[in-house]
From TrEMBL:
Keywords from the named record: Flavoprotein, FMN, NADP, Oxidoreductase, tRNA processing
Organism: Bifidobacterium oedipodis
Span list, region Disordered: 1-30
Protein name according to UniProt: NifR3-like protein
Residue ranges with Basic and acidic residues bias: 7-26
Xref: InterPro entries: Aldolase_TIM, DUS-like_FMN-bd, DusB-like, tRNA-dHydroUridine_Synthase_C, tRNA_hU_synthase_CS
Length: 412
């Protein structure tokens, strides 16, 4: 494998003060949230379930959508290569439930030609109503191949990839959007330029996760960058980063003027957050914080839907559910041995037995309401292809190195 450029980020990506304002928001401060138009698709409540690999498969999306009917619920990223290779796992991720109103799918690719082919499959087989492109992933195995959040640095590949996908999708009136980060680090910011390229090439909206690759999931996202992007683009901008409760969504809109918000980790184990944000956007002060009995009802439903997703394989379903259960139970007074027993469940009967031991009347623990959860660390270092930062465009040799090897490796 080629050597990598490694940026040591210690000290480089310190995030300033939490930019959020105090949580109490008067009703007259509720921003007017208009529906967002993505080409031919209307998103009535401009709230997006941000794609999360291993999390936002259709069972979780359906549960979120039941709480917040009329947002945009994006599937986890699907690797273009894997789709083109018809990898069964990738194909399973392209499934949608009949109840899903907007079938929204995210593609990840580095090679414009392969990503175009993947988009063509999506279009020809009527797989989705909306395609999002992933330019935000900070995971080393992705960025070391020049993908995800590394790609906007190479404006030639970035532009070509968007242009080709938009061309394919436009022909079928499928809107394409792009999800980006601020840049690779603060010395290599790309978001304004990337936003403009996305707009020029025909993307219908951009989502900005207001962190750099180096910041990974650490500190607080810098919402001022969302405001900057919103001010410089004509297409809608969705703000993303650190929305843990409905008041955060209001605060982000007020502070940045963004057209909508995208929620990632905040809804892990809290799908009702979509109801709370919808209420907040409508000026309704009602907030849902379910008791343990209601949370168990959601866990049961989630398990049933996952069993369907895994075509009746309860073991796969319950294993997939484990991380969600940890999130669902976060903060509840549930002992370590019970939590461990949940992590050892192998089927629905095990799950029912463990839920039967819980006290359904326990109220939602105030100390975790609207509080951060999930990944929270900075990157130790950013992994990039060799010499990646030396120029903003690629040479022929670089493209050969990036695209030439292992063309049917379906894992990236
Ligand atoms: C477990 C996990 C998986 C993720 N997978 C994806 C993904 O597949 N595609 C993507 O664009 N972003 C992905 N993200 C990033 C989120 O969509 C989101 O941009 C990020 O978590 C910041 O939003 P948040 O502060 O609301 O969590 C992932 C994040 C997490 C925590």
């Amino acid at each position: 494998m080629a050597a990598e450029t490694v940026i040591d980020e210690r000290g480089d990506s310190l995030v300033g003060e939490d930019p959020r304002s105090p949580r109490s928001i008067e009703p007259d401060q509720v921003p007017h949230m208009a529906p967002v138009q993505l080409g031919s698709i209307t998103v009535p409540t401009p709230v997006v379930l941000s794609p999360m690999a291993g999390v936002t498969n259709w069972p979780f999306r359906v549960i979120c959508e039941e709480y917040g009917p009329d947002g945009l619920y994006v599937a986890e990223m699907i690797t273009a290569r894997a789709l083109v290779a018809r990898n069964p796992k990738a194909l399973r991720l392209c499934h949608f439930a009949p109840s899903e109103k907007i079938r929204s799918l995210q593609l990840y690719g580095v090679n414009p030609s392969i990503t175009e082919q993947a988009a063509k499959i999506v279009v020809d087989e009527g797989m989705a109503d909306h395609v999002d492109l992933n330019f935000g992933c900070p995971v080393p195995k992705v960025t070391r191949r020049g993908g995800g959040s590394a790609l906007p640095w190479k404006t030639d590949i970035f532009t070509e990839l968007i242009s080709r996908v938009v061309k394919v999708c436009d022909a079928a009136s499928i809107p394409v959007t792009a999800k980006i980060r601020v840049g690779i680090d603060h010395n290599h910011e790309t978001f304004l330029e990337a936003g403009h390229i996305a707009q020029e090439e025909g993307c219908k909206a951009v989502t900005l996760h207001a962190r750099t690759t180096a910041e990974y999931y650490g500190g607080h996202s810098d919402w001022s960058r969302i405001g900057e992007l919103k001010a410089s683009l004509d297409i809608p901008v969705f703000g993303n980063g650190d929305i843990w409760g409905a008041e955060d969504a209001l605060a982000m809109v007020r502070q940045t003027g963004c057209d909508g918000v995208a929620v990632g980790r905040g809804c892990q184990g809290r799908p009702w957050l979509f109801a709370n944000i919808k209420n907040a956007f409508e000026g309704n002060p009602e907030r849902i914080n379910p008791n343990l009995g209601e949370v168990c009802r959601i866990i049961r439903r989630h398990a049933e839907l996952l069993t369907e997703f895994y075509e009746g394989d309860e073991r796969m379903a319950v294993h997939d559910l484990r991380k969600h259960i940890a999130w669902y139970l976060k903060g509840f007074p549930v002992g370590g041995s019970t939590r461990k027993a949940f992590m050892e469940c192998e089927n629905m009967a095990d799950l029912e037995r463990e839920m039967g031991n819980l006290d359904p009347s326990i109220e939602y623990p105030p100390r975790v309401i609207d509080k951060p959860r999930g990944r929270v660390r900075f990157a130790k270092k950013v992994h990039l292809p060799y010499g990646w930062l030396d120029a903003r465009t690629t040479t022929h040799e670089e493209r050969e190195t990036l695209f030439g090897d292992d063309p049917m490796d379906a894992s990236y």
